[in-house]
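One-letter codes give the sequence; the fold follows as tokens. Both lines appear below.
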Amino acid sequence: MPSSLSIQLANLDETRAFGKRLAASLRVGDCVFLLGDLGAGKTSLARGVIEALTGEADAPSPTYTIAQTYDTQAGEELIHADLYRIEDAAEIDELGLEEALDFAISLIEWPDRLGAAAPPDRLELDIRHEEGDDAGKRHLRVTGRGKWESRVDDL
């Protein structure tokens, strides 16, 4: 049974700060799915992780390159992928993402494009805009699947 929790984030700065906190829990082989509508804050959260692990303060969005690879300060590999433009599952094979899941920390936006290649062990971060008077705020639903089930409460 997946383990989950809910977090309110006041703005994109808090979203990025959550990414920095999350970075302390990540290790090689971890896969993080970033879910949510366009503009919800997926890339901001990923930038927080990237900055904390690599020192790169202004990481580019991988929307057009599809995947960006970084070396962490600990000498590990970090991959930030944005699969929004993927139209066919065969394109996923060309990226080599499946292999990367074993030797890198992976942050994947639009992970629904993975289809059957989605790893069973993953952390899902679903970011949604608040409506009405709370516009600008975000609701973050954190769900751990597989080995992440026991790690969610530590976030």
